[in-house]
């Protein structure tokens, strides 16, 4: 669940900035794909007059942000904040931000600057600002605090085609907390559904996500106050019935990562076990996607359905809470534009004993983040079909 001080402090901080509106919940269409775009994004209208921006849905970032570097190659004209949109260094919002992401190495004297380091190895430097957001109802235009990034890079995975990040992490000024504190939604609950066909949807404040059974686990407490990740706790990884590694890994749900990341040791063991399970009709090849390993079948691979003919092994994460996440081949293998099947789990030396679940493994699952009850849930779902709800406001941007 969000940091314990967030609901109280967030309410006091944001009441002056954000107008109160009638409560509702919202469902947004998502664009993008694991391959080739490498991201899933929502379109939000920001500013006055409102302008559209593509924001990469990121559950491991506490701060929504736009790329404000005038030299950046982004889909829309680069956002340029007016001077009166800058949050002062001594404002309580700035203190809350630094509680979420940590103090910058060199704090600015007058404006609220920040430095953020993400799970995938990327980083961003910027300043905190506020501006109007126009939501699907059209009548709801709250003033939302967000980041204006002027220097960023260093990513292990290159995400292009977006203007910034939609921060949905466990913070005090993440977007969902701000919406609840201003009574735009009644519950700090959201869910995303990423389709293997591309696109999907993001639901904010909708209690209808609880109407069907799901695998529920308690949110594990964060071990780092500056990185309040969504974690279902420790788990052991299996390939079919074979355990991979001997030490349980701390699992993180990170929709900001395209692929799933494993510590180098378990990753190497998993790759070896996977190779041993494959038929000799598959030939290991190099692919321009730079993923490794990759295989070419006798007739090539044209779709995810073709994977099932050659890849039979099912992975699973068995959580200490008793829940299990099933990971079939289509959630750990991608089919590239060159007709190859490539392993979509990356080995890392810099993540300790963490297992970072990225978009590839979240595909075709409704993943629910219930900050009210402090729990996470997931269930299989047709993510290319938006839910039907009489009370939801749908985005048609």
Automatic annotation (TrEMBL):
It comes from the Eukaryota. Keywords: Aspartyl protease, Hydrolase, Protease, Signal. GO terms for biological process: proteolysis. One of its GO terms (molecular function) is aspartic-type endopeptidase activity. Residues 40-379 form the Peptidase A1 domain. PROSITE patterns: ASP_PROTEASE, PEPTIDASE_A1. It holds the Pfam family TAXi_N. InterPro entries: Aspartic_peptidase_A1, Aspartic_peptidase_AS, PEPTIDASE_A1, Peptidase_aspartic_dom_sf, TAXi_C, TAXi_N. The active site is at residues 58, 254. Belongs to the peptidase A1 family. This is Peptidase A1 domain-containing protein. It comes from Panicum hallii var. hallii.
